[in-house]
Amino acid sequence: MRWFWLVPVALLAACGSKPTGLVKFSGFAPIRPQDTDSRTAIPYCGACGTKVDLGASKCKNAKCLEPLAWAESWGCGFCGASGECRPCRLLDQRDFQCSNCRGKGVLTYEGRSPKCPQCDGTGKCPMCKGTGKCDQCGGNRKMTRDQVAKLLKDRETKKDKDETQP
Description:
Layout (H helix, E strand, L loop, with lengths): L5 H10 L4 E7 L13 E6 L23 E2 L2 E3 L10 H5 L51 E3 H20 L2
Parallel strand pairs: 1-3
Antiparallel strand pairs: 1-2, 4-5
């Protein structure tokens, strides 16, 4: 019974299927406004593990050079393919309220009530804006190739902006 997983692998190898271009999702969603958004996607060759450009037709590793086939979508790695807002789930915010002000929009401190800095006074989770859905996949549980390309472009733009600032 344990060897049944070998059958699909053997069939794929016998058919000469191409190695697939894969995407690894990494980083964490910011929970507070001062936290940086470190989420990114890393496209790589499934045969050798070399980082490649999304949509590349061939692996750029001189030892590999295998043709790559890309899927149209991948399970969202930021919500664990659940479609739920990960900060709300981790902080046990069932009603998707701000974890800092508990949905009130203000903080009472030393007799004053300033606007909550985390949710900017809305009382809603700053990541999902109170919807309870993952802000990357929109609750669809999958990220399309276009969404991954946009994420990569946004991260490159942010990285370039950070490098130019003193």
